Amino acid sequence: MNNQQAYNQWAGNYDTVINKTRDLEGKALRTVLSQFQFTSVLEIGCGTGKNTEWLIPHAEKIIAADFSIEMLAKAKSKIDSLSVEFRQADIREAWNFREGEFDLIICSLVLEHIENIEFVFREAKTKLKAGGLLYIGELHPFKQLMGSKARFETVTGTFELECFIHHYSDYFNAALTNGMKCIGTEEWFDDDDRTTVPRLLTMVFQKNSGIPSSDNT
Ligand SMILES: C[S@@+](CC[C@H](N)C(=O)[O-])C[C@H]1O[C@@H](n2cnc3c(N)ncnc32)[C@H](O)[C@@H]1O
Questions:
Q1: What is the number of domains present in the chain?
Q2: Tens digit of pLDDT for each residue in 122-141?
Q3: CB distance 31 to 59 below 8 Å
Q4: Is 179 inside a domain boundary?
Q5: Would you say 113 and 150 are in contact if contact means Cβ atoms under 8 Å apart?
Q6: If you ran DSSP here, which 8-state letter would residue 212 be given?
Q7: Are 133 and 159 in contact (CB under 8 A)?
Q8: 14: CATH
Q9: Looking at residue 192, what DSSP letter applies?
């Protein structure tokens, strides 16, 4: 079973099974992004719409994309809003969205499934407006190194999805290569206990505004 087929199966109970990573990421995204208001948002790997729903009052227009038709069907069954458009898309292939359209791109718990994240940053850069933001919320690489990965129960037992480990430097170098700077990063712990291995990593990158900096005189 490949990841697309796996998510089609997992869609049935993705929202209802106990999943600390899903829940903590929802909390993290809300904490990080609630200070902003957006015009046009692209959410990649929207899944069952956990974050799409929250985004509605924070944005005029949202495109929510995912490669799993069943995850999208769940999201559509929960969200009925004229400001949300759902699309099936595989983010490993060229992104078929308008260039320079979005002031925010969101990527929650998706990049662990993408081997080449530099490609994602490259595509995101072309689809963002100047000064636009890229939010990433992912399983922390330390947690991945401890053996955590996306998995779910099937009738034949636990199924583990194909996952890749991305280190801090991988994200930051991909951003640098694509003219983005980090404007915020945070590590998120179970029960806020900072003596334990962090569960999640969030980062917000900003595309170059195109305005020359005044401090290079
Ligand atoms: C762990 S779920 C996260 C869903 C949602 N963002 C959330 O935070 O609850 C990962 C999602 O990414 C999607 N996904 C994985 N690989 C993808 C790809 N190559 N292109 C598009 N979507 C992908 C899956 O179908 C799934 O819905």
A1: 1
A2: 999 999 999 999 999 999 99
A3: no
A4: yes
A5: yes
A6: P
A7: no
A8: 3.40.50.150
A9: G
Of 148, 126, 150, whose CA–CA distance to 14 is shortest?
A: 150
7 pocket-lining for ligand 1 (C-beta < 6 Å): yes
Task: Kindly give the distance from the C-alpha atom of residue 178 to the centroid of ligand 1, in angstroms, as a whole number.
Answer: 23
Report pLDDT for 207: 96
Distance 177 CA to ligand 1 centre (A): 25
Closest atom, ligand 1, to C-alpha of 90: 20
> Residue 94: what residue type?
A
pLDDT of residue 209: 81
Q: Which residue ranges of the chain lie beneath pLDDT 50?
A: 216-217
Backbone angles phi, psi at 43, to 5 degrees: -110, 120
Quick check: is 182 in a domain? yes
Ligand 1 pocket check for 9: Cβ under 6 Å: no
Q: Residue 8: which domain range?
A: 3-208
- In-domain check, residue 23: yes
Q: Report if pTM > 0.90.
A: yes
Ligand 1 pocket mutation pick from 91, 110, 152 by most atoms within 8 angstroms of CB: 110
**Ligand 1 site, residue 87, Cβ cutoff 6 A:** no
Q: Is residue 217 part of a domain?
A: no
